[in-house]
């Protein structure tokens, strides 16, 4: 069993999925209807409301620091169905608040001698192609870099891997291949402390021998980032495979082929 804190919780689909192997420590939801649903179904789990207040509460130990931080920050600012004001929209800017929450959790857990937090985040694919490079800002914040990371092309690829102060992997998945009767694509990002591998959560390790394993979706066109010896990043676009590149990372490839029975 592990513990988790949930931000922008909604009606807590993740708690339905994880109830057999995880314990929620707290939720964070401000909308009246989903808050009422949470209170009904999870009466013993506190709803902390506004996520912008969470970093200070965690640092002052008013709120416990969980093993996992999970949530999907508001998507309206990134969706192609909206105005796409991205980080200029206060809802979109909550994506960067996520970084401060994770930093606060990691600080407390480090002080307590516990493993650092794992982040699970989701949003709409539109976040990969905003004019202000919102996804690059998020990656940089999670990797503890001072400047936004830049995609190799005009937009971020649908899957990628980053090895820096934290290890991050992201992938766009379609709900129709996971037991849902509709096409619903979402970007999922998982991040952890540098010493913990999270790639296997979203991608399947097919080869450690150095041989490239073809992927079932050549349009996925993943990107891999690794820190060079000079502190910069080297990026590679690799059709059909998530390639571990650079230094101690060389020698392995990651792929994941989503199938209808994966759920």
TrEMBL record:
EC number: 2.1.1.37
Catalytic reactions of this protein: a 2'-deoxycytidine in DNA + S-adenosyl-L-methionine = a 5-methyl-2'-deoxycytidine in DNA + S-adenosyl-L-homocysteine + H(+)
Active site: 75
Keyword DNA-binding found: no
Keyword terms, alphabetized: Methyltransferase, Restriction system, S-adenosyl-L-methionine, Transferase
Molecular function per GO: DNA (cytosine-5-)-methyltransferase activity
Class in the EC hierarchy, top level: transferase
UniProt-listed PROSITE patterns: C5_MTASE_1, SAM_MT_C5
One Gene Ontology term from the biological process aspect of the record: methylation
One Pfam short name: DNA_methylase
Keyword set includes Methyltransferase: yes
Family: Belongs to the class I-like SAM-binding methyltransferase superfamily. C5-methyltransferase family.
UniProt protein name: DNA (cytosine-5-)-methyltransferase
Organism for this UniProt entry: Avibacterium paragallinarum (Haemophilus gallinarum)
Gene label: haeIIIM_1
